[in-house]
Amino acid sequence: MQPGFYYRWKRSQEDRGGEERMSACGREGWRRHRRSHGHSGVQASGFGVRRPLRYMAHRLDLDDEQIDILAGILNLLKTERAQARLDEQRSIAGIADAVEGDEFDKAQATEALSARVEAAERLKEEVLTTLEKTHDMLDPEQRKRLAYLLRSGQLTI
Known about the structure:
CATH class of the largest domain: Mainly Alpha
Radius of gyration: 23 Å
Number of strands: 0
Strand content: under 5%
Distance between the termini: 23 Å
CATH topology of the largest domain: Four Helix Bundle (Hemerythrin (Met), subunit A)
Helix content: over 70%
Number of helices: 5
Structural class: mainly alpha
Order of helices and strands: HHHHH
Number of domains: 2
């Protein structure tokens, strides 16, 4: 079963229940109900840990222990990527400051670009660690499936 099917099935169940609720409390009452229970009517794009974790758990047939381990691994990677984005923004601000003056401040631009390179190195190390830990927890058949997902572009790291 495809992961996208779950969303469509859940949505159809909500729609069926929505007709009953709407007749009981009226259209405005149903809107308040949906908002108060976190139903915005828009599919959330769930980037971060949950979507890749659900996808990998489904495609690789992970057991509960493997899912717990993978959740921790992906959480660390998510944190490091967020830090790299923050460092890049700081780098852009430093470059802008170097360009802003009457004369180009080469030292400040070099420092800003060095910070960006350091962030990229830290991110590279975290990705390597993630791949190593993921490889260690998977069995050979799951590794083959993961390799296929990476080669086909269905999953990116």
